[in-house]
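Curious: why this fold?
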Amino acid sequence: MSPKNDRAAADAAAAVDAPALIEELRALVRMRSPTGSEDEIAAVLADRLEDAGLDVELFHPDPAALRGDPAWPGEEVPRETLTVVLGRAGTGTGRRIILSGHTDVVPAGDPGTWTTDPWGGEIRDGRLYGRGANDMKGGVAAILGAVRALAASGSLARLRGELLVALVPSEEDGGQGTLAAIRAGATGDLAIIPEPSMLDIVIAHAGAITFRLSVPGRAAHASKRREGVSALDNLGLLVRALEADEARRNEAEAEPLMTDLGLPYPTIVGKVRGGEWASTVMDLVIAEGRYGVRLGQTPEEAFEELRACVTAACEADPFLRDHPPLLELTGGQFGSSRVAADDELPVALARVAHRVTGRRPALLGVPYGADMRLFIDVARTPCVMFGPGDVRLAHGADERVPLDEVEDCARVLAAFVVDQLGVAG
């Protein structure tokens, strides 16, 4: 990079307004946007980007039409609206950088498990608390802070290529918001999603599918329970088979990015319902769960692996052999994805992050799915995740994000845009 661009990148990083960034994040956390109800926050973010100097488009693709897309990633929350925000700056020619974040959050859960108001945006010891603070309104605020810093430093109007900001709904239940953005033209030379990574760089992620198992039994009076077959016992048999399958799949992994995680491909049964009468042997139990998608594997391939596990377990049981359970693929379908450690994107981002923060980020793999794979596999756009916060705090009570990481993320993103696109004049 030329000395002129070096100075412009440094000026952009230095122009991040930390107090304004904190207030922006607090306002976003106070705005409730659970998956399926993101329209209000999308409209606010569109205004914020426009105020910062971007040309903004707020559009509403038809969710019903999107369900027919061959790359549709599933959904867990029925919806009639899908509001996507796209903001652009630069020449519109040359290289294009995408900064993308999701606007939806998971429900807050039982308020009694929180020590703060889940929607209050309270600050304690340099951390801002609230549902979505970590996943990923801290990252969205960092994008806004970076855009404002580019404008304040004079770089935004002089970018030699194009900056595209894509703020999307529906990441938590599959990623159809990002798919809609991609179909609307959100493709480029590279993309960064500031999901929580503690400012390390995620270059590989596993995926996950959700499933439903309808497990049969045979009803009988409790006093004659041996005449019946408990569906709950049958579910227990299948859960043990899934546990053995989980161990086998994880032991077979050889990629250090994933083996370092300990359990890169977890299986879990998260919901169980069944039974109609306390003194009747259960004749049906319905279980819903999550099954990991291995690195390099599609959701469809993972589902076939799951089906093979369930089928083998049933073949070994006299009742289930003749009365097999119904296995269904439901909800979000997160594929796995990766970029090479020596790819231009992680190498350049690590260089800029080191220059801005004094710390060189690690290159990591993670055990969960994300919109990163849609940019890589559908948009053919190299993508990594780099953002503030610890994913272990996501979705839980007292979710929080360190404010210094939000600020550092904004500074790195601003400098990186200049580093990659350069400025004219």
Observations:
- The chain has two domains: 3-205+336-421, 207-334.
- The mean pLDDT is 96.
- The radius of gyration is 23 Å.
